[in-house]
Every structure is written in C-alpha cells, then in structure tokens.
Amino acid sequence: MILKDIRWRIWRRAQIWRHSRRDAELYNHLVGSLFTSQSSLNSANILGMAVAAAGYLLTRDKLYLLLAAAMLATGIGRTSVYHSFVRHRDKLVTRADGAYYDRLFFIYSALFTTAFGLTCYALIRHPASTGTHAVAAGAAVGYAMGVVARNAGRPHIVVTQVMLTICPMIVGYALMRSTYGNVAVLLLIGTMLATVFVTFSLQQNVIAVYNADKATRHLAMFDKLTGLMNRHTFSEQVSQVIATDPQKKFAILYLDLDRFKEINDTMGHTAGDAVIVEVSRRLRAVTRAGDLIARFGGDEFLIKLGCTEIVEIEHIVRRIAATLAQPVSVEGKVFAPTASIGAAVFPDNGLLAGDIIKKADIALYEAKRAGGRTYRIFAPQMESDIHAQRTLRNEVQLAVDRHEFVLHYQPIYELASKKVVAVEALLRWNHPTRGLLPPGAFIPVSEETMAIVEIGEQILEAACQIALKLPDDIAVAVNLSPVQFNQPELLIGAVRSALQRTGLAARRLHLEITETLLLANTPSTHKTLDILAGMGTKLVLDDFGTGYSSLSYIQDFPFSTIKIDKKFTDSLYVNTASSAIIKAITQIAKDLSLEIVVEGIETAEQESFVRMLGPTQGQGYLFSRPLPEAELLLKLSKPASDARRMSLAS
Q1: Which of 55, 341, 350, 560 can bridge 538 by disulfide, Cβ–Cβ 3.0-4.6 Å?
Q2: 439 pLDDT exceeds 60?
Q3: Distance (Å, rounded) from C-alpha 314 to C-alpha 300?
C-alpha cells in the first residue's frame, strides 16, 4: 500500500512537470526561479570549495585542491549564466528561450555537484576520523537541503544534484562493510528520498503561487465579467502598437449602450450583466482577429480597428450596430440593445493612445447629444464644442448659486371672453455677459448635470410668490423636467415646501408634464403624480401630440388639463388632419371633464378656427407674449381688475 502511494505521488508530480513544459510562460517562470538569488548561489560555491579546503587541511592530499579548482571553475560558469539570464530576462518569450538557460544551469550544476560529491566521498574513504566524517556528512546533507530550497522549481536539477552529492557517500559507507556504515547508508537513502518528495511538494507551491499571481494579474488587466481587456490594458496595448509602428494608421471606436441604466433599474444588475456579456460576445464575433476590444467600464466598450478610411469605418460601425440590435432574451424579457459610437483616427486625431481615446469619447458625446443610436467621427470642431459645453456647465452651476434664473409669464386665456385664467412661468437665464437666454440654451445642460433639480426648487417658490400678487382666480403653471422625477422625494418636497412657505392654495399651482416622462410609465412616476395631484395641485399634459402621444395617458394619469401643441395650430389651414385631431381630443376631454388649451395662437384667423373646433382656452402671441414679472403685475395685479381683458393691442 505504501509503495502504491509512493508510485501515485511520483506519477502525479511527473504530470505536473510535463504540464509545466507545455506552458511556455509557466516553464520560463520555473526556470526563472533558478535565478532569483545570487547570494545563495555564491554560498553554495563557497561551501563546496570550503569543504575541499578542509579536506586538504585534514589530510594534506592534493586531490582536494584539484576538486576545489573544479568547483571554482564550474561555480564561475554557473555565476556567468546567472548574470546572462538577469540581463536577458525581459526578452524571454518562447519556451526555447528559457530552455537555453535551463540546460546551461543544469550542466554547470551537475559538474559542480560531481566535484562536490567526490570531495565528500574522498573524505569518507580517508582513514576513519571524526573530523573527516563530520565535514563530509554535514556538508553533504546541508548542501542537499540548500539545493532543495533553492532549485525546487526545476525538480530534475534537484534530483540530479542530490544524487550526485549523496550517492558517492552511500557507496563510500557501503564499502566500510560495518554496522556503522550500513546505518549511514540507510540514513542517506532516507535523506535522498525525502529530498525528492520535498522537492516536488515545493514545486507545487511554486506553481500555486505562480497561478495565484497570474490570476491576480489577469484581474488587474482584464474585465472579470466579460474577459475583455480593461481600460488600462487597452491603453497599454494601443501605446505598444504606436511605439512598434508609429506610421501605421488605425481607428478607435468608443461605444456606449443606450438606456442601459433602465435595464439595471427595472430588472436588476444580474440581468444587466447578462446583457453586457452578450454584447461582448457579439463584439468579438463582428470584429476581426487583429482588432482589440476592451470593456471600459459599465456599459462602455473600446475597439481598435486596423482600418482608417472613413467609408470602411462607417461600414464596420453600421455592422456593429446591426449586430447589437438583434434581440436578446434575459429572464424571459426581450431587449434589442442599441449603441452610440464615437470614432477617432491615429495619427490624424492625436499621437498618443490617451489622445485618440479622448477624441473618440468626444465623438461619442456628440452621438449621444444627437439622441443616441447613431455614430459620429471626430472632427476638430467637436473639441471646441465640448469646451463650450464644459464652460456652460460651470456657468449654469454658478447661475444657480447666484439666482440668475428669472421667470417670464405668458397668459392662458378663455377664447370667448379673453379672460386670463392662468399664466405659464417660462424660464429665462439673465446671463451676466450674454443677456437674456431662452431655455433651449441651458435646459439640456441643466438636465444633464442635474442642476435642473435646484433650479426647479427656486422657480417653484418664485412662481408661487407671483401668484399671490395676482387675482385669486388666476393660476400659475410651472413646467417640470423629467429629470426631476428621478428624485421624486425632492420634487414632492419642493412642491410642498413652496406651497407651505408662500401660503398659495394648491389648486392655483398647475404642474405641466411632457409626454417624454410618461413613456416609461414606471410605478415611481405614477406614484409621484398621484401624490402631487393628491396635494391639490393641477396636473397638465403639455405639448400633447409632439411625441408618442397616447390617449391612455389621459386615462392612466390624474391630469386636469391637456395642452395641444403649437404644431397643430400652425398646420390648421394646410393639414385637415390637424383640425380633426383637435376636434376629437376636445370632445374626449369634454367627456372626461378636462380642460383643453391650444398653444401657438398667433393670428385672429387661427383663434377663430380653434374656437369653432371646440377648445375653450388658448395661449399664444396673439393674446400676449411672455411678460417679465413687472409687466405682468402691471397688467394683472389684484387692483387692476379691468386689466384682465387683454388684446393684441395691449
């Protein structure tokens, strides 16, 4: 049973050794373990020559001087191999590179150990004395243990050295033909076998440490989820490509999945991870063998393409987009991933890897600004646009802190009586150098940076303050951004706070919501609107007809008013469908006890036509342009009761 266990252990160690020879990287690592410590190598050389010198001093036999010279020569040879390996360590790539030093070290070590073993044999065969035997036995066993500790990464070298050291001593003791000699033989055989097993065990430890280090390095260089290289590794690879051939052109694509956050938010990160893994698989399938792919983090990917012609880049981008858009099923739900892509070219757009990636990122930003599901190739103008956007972001935040945002108010009136029933608060930016800016100049940036949340809090209270200065039957309408609904607690708190701080009746605060917010129809959105309506405020569906209009919005959400978009008013005389739509919506609203406001009335003819179709309220430049606070109060303040009838002439 013991012999069977020993055979199994030897066979297992042999399998590990053969496997290490197949893995060039592991093989070179094990060879490299022979060259990690010059001090231990020097110690072995000194020990061997010291034993030979001791033998000469004890016996005055010149044989020991010859053996010392042999060990000096082979020791120098072994040291030279060590220094050569250290100089060329970084150039060792193939297994053949490591095998060269493996063979040299083995040869010099075998020659050195042969001389050392003969020295120990000679000491034993000298007329018996305590001194010679102590030197031989102590030096041999100590040398063998040192060899095991130092060279365990290459077991065949250890086994050879141990046998060349101890076997001559075994022969020497066996020739004594005495009980003492026989006991010594048994002890030395046991020592030799023990060193062999210890060597293979230590090699296993070396391999385990190597594998753990390799796994750690892999985690540091590659994305754990997809197996793609990470940002740092990608940048290094691209830098290496540039350093190797600075004249070779290539392109980098920066890809970002559209609306990926919705998958994580609605289905959880496990589903999101599954989509990321599938996207990475598709990217591997659609790119060529020489292309590099990396996951940049989250839902972003980088691809290095060998092509640089715009036509070819566009072809590949379209192929990637088409591949990604194929439906993917996750947890029983089907998604069709889409992406925004930015592209930049080396060396046209930069000379360093970081520069090219940055330019591709800028192009990606432009693709996202265009609404996503598209691509952009970097152009110098984009960089100046990005700088302008960055400057605008900073200015918007400063404007929030300085309260530079102001409200203008456009009246909403009854078409028949011209009586003002509400005023819509329209946001303007009183910029210190550019003057009064319209919403389109800053709202997108405000939403992108979330500054709109704080702006919304400011204008809610300002609008409520103005309403208090108007007749009690005139309401104030405030537009809410979809971004504000991402933080429902803040929005609800801001509305409640504005009403409490000003004392305005909730029924006089109208909150205008665009259809964009309602597309997702999430439980959070529904709950937030229910709470706002429950507070007594009136909810207005703004710009009805501009997007994915659905009559289900009117049924599903607690709206009290529908505002028909200006585009229908503009096309009343050129598109018969516009008048039919206005008439139909008006009838539905009347059946549901909802108010209808038609926007964009700019001529008397339009006003007359709209009245004929059924709506009772309107808004537009025919009645009044948006007015600054002072002008509005001059015409509609409580004392000026006769000012509530306004006309174009006013």
Answers
A1: 560
A2: yes
A3: 19
Residue 520 pLDDT: 62
Residues 37 and 81 grouped into a single domain? yes
Query: In the listed set 345, 378, 411, which residue is the last one of a domain according to the structure?
Result: 378
Asked whether residue 261 falls in the same domain as residue 117, the answer is no
HEC profile of 607-618: HHHHHHHCCCEE
Domain count across the chain: 3
CA distances from residue 56 to 53, 119, 125, 171, 318 in whole angstroms, order as listed: 5, 10, 14, 21, 84
DSSP string covering 584-645: HHHHHHHHTT-EEEEE---SHHHHHHHHHHS--EEESTTT---EEHHHHHHHHSTT-GGGGB
Residue 456 predicted with pLDDT over 80? yes
Alpha carbons 143 and 111: distance in angstroms, whole number: 15
180 and 239, same structural domain?
Answer: no
Average pLDDT along the chain: 86
Element (H, E) at 25: helix 24-32
Cα dihedral 164/166/170/173 (nearest 10): 120
Question: Which residue bears the tokens 């280090």?
Answer: 213
Q: Assess whether 435 and 507 both reside in one domain.
A: yes
Residue-wise pLDDT for 256-308, tens only, equals 998 888 777 777 778 888 889 999 999 999 888 889 999 988 899 999 998 87
User: 355 and 249: one domain?
Assistant: yes
CATH number assigned to the domain comprising residue 262: 3.30.70.270
Residue 291 and residue 349 in contact, taking contact as beta carbons nearer than 8 Å: no
Are 101 and 151 spatial neighbours (Cβ–Cβ below 8 Å)?
no
Pair type for strands 595-599 and 617-619: parallel
SS3 419: strand
| pLDDT of 549 strictly over 70 | no
State how far the Cα of 123 lies from the Cα of 16, in Å rounded to an integer.
38
Q: Is residue 647 part of a domain?
A: no
pTM attached to this predicted model? 0.57
Q: Do 294 and 354 belong together in one domain? A: yes
pLDDT of residue 34: 84
State both tokens at 288. Answer: 């060529």
Domain containing residue 243:
231-378
Q: 354 with 344: CB under 8 angstroms? A: no
Question: Strand 509-514 relative to strand 538-544: parallel, antiparallel, unpaired?
Answer: parallel
DSSP string, 472-506: TT-EEEEE--GGGGGSHHHHHHHHHHHHHHH---G
- Domain assignment of residue 646, yes or no: no
Tell me if 645 is assigned to some domain.
no
Q: How many CB atoms lie within 10 A of CB 251?
A: 27
Calpha distance 320→338 (Å, rounded): 10
For 173-205, give the secondary structure using H, E and C: HHCCCCHHHHHHHHHHHHHHHHHHHHHHHHHHH
Structural domain ending residue among the three candidates 162, 195, 221: 221
Q: State how far the Cα of 386 lies from the Cα of 375, in Å rounded to an integer.
A: 16
Q: Are residues 487 and 612 in the same domain?
A: yes
- Report if residue 424 sits inside a domain: yes
* Residue 546: CATH number of its domain: 3.20.20.450
The answer to whether 148 and 195 have CB atoms below 8 angstroms apart is: yes
The Cα 372–Cα 367 span in angstroms is 6
Q: Which residues contact 430 (CB under 8 A, 6 or more apart)?
A: 404, 405, 406, 436
Residue with tokens 């919506």: 585
Dist. CA 517–CA 520, nearest whole Å: 7
